[in-house]
């Protein structure tokens, strides 16, 4: 059921499919100029000229620049030589390194031999490679001249990269495409965050706040890893704190995801034991955030040691909990799984690439942006579905609390509450109360049993509701007694309605005993007067109903307030007999 709802939702959002197709197509463009690559670990005393000699002598390790390759960044770093292959075209070119590596990459043009540092956090660079590092090849450099790069040492993990040597026009086109794609993904994520925060405040439901925190942290992580925070956002103030901020955002995202999942998937109902474990995971991740933000070296080192094991544990635990909750009937656990599984798959592929596997999947980093937007949309649909379910359940509970289970009329408490609101309204509005009691109902129960009595009550309530307007209030006052509040009715109209109700019940022809006696109803009528309360109005209608009983049953009686010129109360006979 949940899966079909998700599929139908995607059909109503056709651009979501386009987003996923764009996600798969990003990063597939190959360099216009084929490259030959070689590399080795840097040694003391190395020079770019020596690297070129080693390259020509074939002593460097060869690799395919179009495939992802990991270069060690410990000690002195690594050297890389990229040699353009024929056909050589003398035109403006750009060397692009994707994804943008952490730290600094120094490029040595063959014409000058002077190194030019490249970094995603270099805001003075003339060429900004959005989502990658970009170096504009000097026009005086030969099209066939090799390019020497040095990956400078850094303490961060060395992620695999690939290289493209593109014509200037192709670079600008791909750069614009990446900007549109990345901006759309971040816009979707931030829009979902703002929506969730608004709903959290309006509905006073912390589940939406946990979701907003999770998606916001994920967007922050992707913004740092893709370089979007630096180019095009150019948030200079984040450049020095990015590693610590990324670690804190990673831990916080798992903490928010854990708290969100506990409530969203209803683990207290479907997996109570795992709920406790996931709650403990959220506490551990929050502790890691505090450790990283403490600026105490020992605590920060401990945070870095614990982060990856806890991430692996958390991903496994959340996945198992979602699967168990879904299998046990949690509707929203399916939404969580649909949004969560692609993210886990990308994380697994990224981990494999760090160990040298799957070098041809160069679009994984860009896919992480698309998957983040996809997950934000899926979980937002799940939250919307959750809100609808909660509203439906609330309405059901309200109906059960206000309606009589047998007749579906308002119960006594709910009828009195609505009648009080009517009396508290416009004092000039005419109101009439009808107090009704079934005649010979005890005799019906004695002869035919209580089941027949229940059927009779149901039939009478249905008949009464059919004769009344939607604005009239029908309630079961107790046992075989019913009450009606007529709004805007004059005395004559109230008498007409009461007479019509008597006739309608009489036409049901419900047998009371084995003879010809049929179930009827006696009705007392009271009009609102100044200073009336619900109790006083119903009490006068009840007195009028007893007068109708004393008058022979199956009739109506109007209660008139005693005045010097009050006329004699009228007793209306329904069955044709005289009063």
Automatic annotation (TrEMBL):
The chain crosses the membrane at residues 176-201, 208-230, 242-262, 274-293, 305-326, 333-351, 363-384. InterPro entries: 7TMR_DISM_rcpt_extracell_dom1, Diguanylate_Cyclase, GGDEF_dom, Nucleotide_cyclase, Rev_trsase/Diguanyl_cyclase. SMART domains: GGDEF. The keyword Amino-acid biosynthesis does not apply. Its EC number is 2.7.7.65. Gene3D superfamilies: 3.30.70.270. Residues 429-561 form the GGDEF domain. It holds the Pfam family 7TMR-DISM_7TM. Keywords: Membrane, Transmembrane, Transmembrane helix. It catalyses: 2 GTP = 3',3'-c-di-GMP + 2 diphosphate. PANTHER family: DIGUANYLATE CYCLASE DGCM-RELATED (PTHR45138:SF9), REGULATORY COMPONENTS OF SENSORY TRANSDUCTION SYSTEM (PTHR45138). This is diguanylate cyclase. It comes from Rhodanobacter caeni.
């Amino acid at each position: 059921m949940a899966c079909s709802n998700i599929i139908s939702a995607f059909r109503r959002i056709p651009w979501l499919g386009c987003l996923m197709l764009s996600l798969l197509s990003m990063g597939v463009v190959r360099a216009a100029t084929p490259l030959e690559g070689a590399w080795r670990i840097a040694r003391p005393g190395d020079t770019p000229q020596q690297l070129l000699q080693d390259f020509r002598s074939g002593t460097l390790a060869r690799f395919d620049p179009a495939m992802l390759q990991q270069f060690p960044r410990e000690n002195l770093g690594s050297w890389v030589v990229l040699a353009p292959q024929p056909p050589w075209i003398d035109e403006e070119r750009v060397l692009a390194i994707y994804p943008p590596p952490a730290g600094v990459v120094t490029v040595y043009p063959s014409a000058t031999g002077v190194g030019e540092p490249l970094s995603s956090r270099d805001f003075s660079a003339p060429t900004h490679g959005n989502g990658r590092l970009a170096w504009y090849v000097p026009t005086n450099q030969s099209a066939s001249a090799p390019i020497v790069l040095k990956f400078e040492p850094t303490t961060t993990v060395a992620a695999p990269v690939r290289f493209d040597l593109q014509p200037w026009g192709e670079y600008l086109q791909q750069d614009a495409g990446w900007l549109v794609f990345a901006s759309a993904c971040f816009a979707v994520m931030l829009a979902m965050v703002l929506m969730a925060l608004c709903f959290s405040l309006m509905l006073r439901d912390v589940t939406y706040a946990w979701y907003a925190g999770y998606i916001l942290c994920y967007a922050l992580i992707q913004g740092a890893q893709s370089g979007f925070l630096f180019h095009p956002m150019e948030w200079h103030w984040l450049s020095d704190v990015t590693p610590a901020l990324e670690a804190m955002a990673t831990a916080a995202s798992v903490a928010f995801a854990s708290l969100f999942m506990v409530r969203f998937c209803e683990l207290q109902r479907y997996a109570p034991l795992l709920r406790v474990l996931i709650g403990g995971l959220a506490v551990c991740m929050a502790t890691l955030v505090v450790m990283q933000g403490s600026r105490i070296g020992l605590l920060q080192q401990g945070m870095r040691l614990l982060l990856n094991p806890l991430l692996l544990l958390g991903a496994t635990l959340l996945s198992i909990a979602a699967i168990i909750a879904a299998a046990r009937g949690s509707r929203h656990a399916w939404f969580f799984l649909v949004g969560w599984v692609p993210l886990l798959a990308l994380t697994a592929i990224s981990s494999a690439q760090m160990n040298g596997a799957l070098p041809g999947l160069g679009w994984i980093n860009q896919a992480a942006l698309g998957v983040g937007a996809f997950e934000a949309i899926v979980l937002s649909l799940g939250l919307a579905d959750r809100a609808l379910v909660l509203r439906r359940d609330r309405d059901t509970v309200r109906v059960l609390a206000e309606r009589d289970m047998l007749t579906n009329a308002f119960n006594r408490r709910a009828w009195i509450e609505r009648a009080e609101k009517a009396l508290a309204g416009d004092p000039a509005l005419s109101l009439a109360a009808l107090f009704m009691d079934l005649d010979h109902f005890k005799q019906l129960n004695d002869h035919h049993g209580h089941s027949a009595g229940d059927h009779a009550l149901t039939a009478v309530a249905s008949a009464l509701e059919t004769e009344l307007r939607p604005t009239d209030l029908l309630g079961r006052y107790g046992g075989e007694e019913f009450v009606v509040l007529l709004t805007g009715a004059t005395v004559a109209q109230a008498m007409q309605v009461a007479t019509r109700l008597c006739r309608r019940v009489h036409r049901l022809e419900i047998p009371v005993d084995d003879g010809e006696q049929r179930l009827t109803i006696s009705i007392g009528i009271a009009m609102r007067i100044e200073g009336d309360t619900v109790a006083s109005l119903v009490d006068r209608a009840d007195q009028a109903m007893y007068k109708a009983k004393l008058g022979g049953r199956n009739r109506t009686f109007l209660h008139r307030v005693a005045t010097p010129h009050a006329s004699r109360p009228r007793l209306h006979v329904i069955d044709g007999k005289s009063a």
